[in-house]
Specification:
Keywords: Membrane, Transmembrane, Transmembrane helix. It comes from Flavobacterium celericrescens. This is PAP2 superfamily protein. The structure is a single chain. This protein is an all-alpha fold. The chain has one domain (about 5-200). Helices cover about 80% and strands about 0% of the residues. It is built from eight helices and no strands. It has helices at about 5-15, 15-30, 35-65, 75-95, 105-125, 130-150, 155-175, 180-200. Helix 3 runs antiparallel to helix 4 (about 75-95).
């Protein structure tokens, strides 16, 4: 098996556009007994629309306008508009869809994502290209760890798998020459720190 041929697959599996959906599915997987089915379905639909369908539609629009050129690799200039749109959509999600009182842990997951989006947008303005893929997979790993601690669930294997995925995504980005090691490390920090800080707050 040639690992180098497989590595790019992880850039698609853990593309930032999928991370919110992964986190939401995991959240409801372990908390489904606390909510009505209607609450789960409506919230999932809202998350899919605001974090997947709308951003995907905007990507095709931006691509047709020449604003972006690639789904997995974007230049510094191409990042500004998609990241700004992501930040706005995350704000709408936590303001009008995911209630802090009802979906507390999920609310803080998306709030952390909003902080990460603002930080990475600031880095783009400062001409620094932090890895969006590393931000996403690191934030997801922190969320999985936080929920496992909060609900005292033995997800050691899952957490270990997430950490391995961080390494695989990082290797993928390096293999594809999309980022430097510093940009990957910055992405991990931008993804982890808001989640860890907010986890301490909600705990």
């Amino acid at each position: 098996m040639d690992l180098k041929k497989i590595l790019p697959v992880f850039s698609y599996i853990f593309h930032p556009i999928f991370v919110s959906l992964y986190g939401t599915l995991f959240f409801f997987l372990i908390t489904s007994n606390f909510y009505y089915d209607s609450q789960i379905y409506i919230t999932l639909l809202q998350v899919i629309i605001l974090t997947f369908l709308l951003p995907l539609s905007m990507y095709f629009l931006f691509r047709s306008l020449g604003v972006v050129s690639s789904f997995t690799e974007a230049s510094l200039t191409e990042r500004r508009m998609p990241i700004a749109v992501q930040a706005v959509l995350l704000f709408v999600l936590i303001k009008y869809s995911v209630s802090k009182e009802i979906f507390t842990e999920l609310y803080f997951f998306f709030l952390g994502g909003l902080f990460s989006a603002v930080l990475v947008l600031a880095s783009v303005i400062l001409k620094f290209k932090a890895s969006l893929h590393m931000i996403g997979v690191s934030a997801l790993t922190a969320f999985v760890y936080g929920l496992s601690v909060y609900y005292q669930l033995p997800f050691v294997n899952l957490i270990a798998f997430c950490i391995v995925c961080i390494g695989l995504v990082a290797s993928s980005r390096l293999y594809m020459k999309a980022h430097t090691p510093i940009e990957l490390i910055a992405g991990i920090a931008i993804g982890l720190l808001p989640q860890v800080i907010l986890f301490k707050y909600w705990l």
